[in-house]
Design a protein that fits this description.
Layout (H helix, E strand, L loop, with lengths): L2 H5 L13 H6 L1 H8 L5 E6 L2 E6 L2 H10 L4 E2 L2 H10 L8 H11 L5 H20 L7 E2 H17 L7 H23 L4 H4 L5 H24 L7 H7 L11 H32 L1 H15 L13 H13 L5 E5 L3 E3 L2 E3 L4 E4 L1 H4 L40 H16 L2 E4 L7 E4 L3 E4 L2 E6 L1
Parallel strand pairs: 2-8
Antiparallel strand pairs: 1-2, 3-5, 4-12, 5-8, 6-7, 9-12, 10-11
Helix pairs in contact: 5-9, 7-8, 7-17, 8-9, 8-13, 9-11, 9-13, 11-13, 13-15, 13-17, 14-15
The protein binds protoporphyrin IX containing FE.
């Protein structure tokens, strides 16, 4: 152990042999929040592995931006790669850099504004499907909506019918749920577990991949260029190398977009509806703004800049309902101020923990959109989408989807929690309220 290594304190609660693993697995929220205040850099023992937990805006910037080229993604992503392929989330090095450059145009403003049409249509259809007083499984419905929005943004042509986009969305949710469990188990264990419904689950995952393959084949065979996400992925050419993506690479990128974009966005949307129901004063402000800006119309991409209070509210939602833990690995010896980070060190950071640190966000459990009125000082400690070259490529997509969906629903309904509501805040990848049954009341 080097002397620098010596100065990094070990987090409280280490147990013999298992270190901090059990506390991290079983009491995620309490454990992560407890790490705030123990230091900017804290040592964790995860079984036999040592990891450094990074908890400061400056060190995060150093890790995610300044040293981005010398920091890889780490061993959890190796497991995830076996499940979802080598797309943007799991790829490292030149493959990641090349694909990121090739995919970036599909997330430009002009493209997002065309995906926004799908977002409006789907959100309006969801709101129109509810009846006053009925019980709605809002968590399931927003997960399905998020899947359909990605499916239809990927493929806007006749090659994917609306029914097929619904099927793809539903199957993608199986892929995501299974992946969350399997990524935490040692390789090969899941396949051997006598889980009820395992065969059905495997068949659904196969069907998801078969539909994706079929779509790619149809686009390749179609002489017409389609100006949607899939069309852009298939025709993207790297400026430096002139290469295009193979079908297998496009397949992995599509799977990745579903995995990265559905659970995160739906957790935020569920969190938003839940918090509005619990905070009537905030709900009033957001409803007033939606009524004034929309004046009875469906929301569109052009409305986004005027929905400022809604955006501040969503900032609070993203602060509260964040990813609880992300991993990196030092691919080089690094020096951060007085700390030496040896090559190979596992690095962990937690948007959730940073976003609940009292030093940045007094009374962090409270939803207070006004803390963002002059929130420039908060920006460095706000990383719901991470930052740097591995930050979320879908950030603008997610903002458009969250805002449009919220506005389309709120223009018709207030969503209430039933008296027997059993909502708990569950941490899978992202914190989310579950099960979120709500009752729509017409406005
Ligand atoms: C509220 C919604 C969302 C949140 C909070 C979110 C958050 C994040 C975060 C924190 C990362 C970094 C992950 C890491 O370091 O391992 C990330 C990466 C990524 N996200 Fe999102 N995301 C959201 C929505 C989306 C959407 C809608 C899409 C696609 C349509 C998307 C696609 C991706 C991809 C492809 C990456 C990997 C980027 C790379 O490494 O180059 N995300 N996201």
């Amino acid at each position: 152990m080097s002397r620098d290594d010596d100065r990094v304190p070990t987090a409280r609660g280490r147990m013999p042999l298992i270190g901090h693993s059990l506390a991290m697995a079983l009491r995620k929220q309490r454990f992560m929040r407890g790490l705030a205040g123990q230091g900017d850099l804290v040592r964790l023992r995860l079984g036999r592995r040592t990891a450094y937990y990074v908890h400061s805006a400056d060190l995060l910037r150093q890790m995610l931006v300044t040293d981005a080229r010398r920091v890889g993604k780490g061993w959890v992503y190796d497991r995830v790669r076996n499940l979802i392929g080598n797309g943007l989330v799991t790829a490292d090095g030149p493959v990641h850099a090349t694909h990121r450059r090739m995919m970036q145009p599909a997330f430009r403003r002009t493209c997002i504004s065309s995906y926004a049409g799908v977002m409006t249509e789907e959100a309006a259809a969801l709101a129109a499907s509810w009846r006053p007083g009925e019980r709605v499984a809002v968590d399931d419905e927003v997960a399905q909506l998020a899947g359909v929005v990605i499916a239809r943004s990927l493929c806007s042509s006749r090659h994917l019918t609306k029914e097929a986009s619904r099927r793809l969305a539903s199957l993608s949710n199986t892929v995501i749920r299974t992946m969350s469990v399997r990524a935490m188990l040692p390789m090969g264990v899941w396949e051997r577990l006598p889980l009820p419904g395992a065969r059905r689950t495997t068949a659904r995952i196969r069907e998801f991949h078969a539909i994706v393959d079929e779509l790619i084949a149809r686009y390749r065979a179609d002489p017409e260029h389609h100006d949607d996400l899939l069309g852009i992925l298939l025709s993207a050419r790297d400026e430096d190398t002139g290469t295009t993506m193979t079908d297998a690479q496009v397949h992995d990128e599509i799977t990745t977009l579903f995995v990265a974009g559905v659970e995160t966005t739906s957790a935020a949307l569920a969190g938003a509806f839940y918090e509005l129901a619990r905070n009537p004063a905030v709900e009033r402000q957001v409803l007033d703004e939606v009524d004034e800006v929309l004046a009875g119309r469906e929301p569109s991409f052009a409305d986004l800049p005027r929905l400022t209070c809604t955006r501040r509210f969503l900032n609070e939602v993203l602060r509260r309902y964040s990813l609880w833990f992300l991993m990196r690995q030092a691919n080089d010896d690094l020096r951060w101020g007085s700390h030496h980070i040896p090559r190979g060190t596992t690095l962990i950071f937690s948007p959730y923990s940073l976003h609940h640190d009292e030093r940045f966000y007094p009374d962090p459990g409270r939803i207070d959109p006004d803390r963002w009125l002059d929130g420039d000082h908060l920006k460095s400690a706000f990383v719901p989408f991470s930052t740097g070259p591995r930050g979320c490529i879908g950030e603008s997509f997610a903002w458009a989807e969250m805002t449009i969906t919220l506005a389309a629903v709120l223009r018709r309904w207030r969503l209430e929690l039933p008296a027997d509501s059993k909502v708990r805040l569950v941490t899978s990848g992202t914190l989310r309220p579950e099960p979120l049954t709500m009752i729509p009341t017409p406005r």
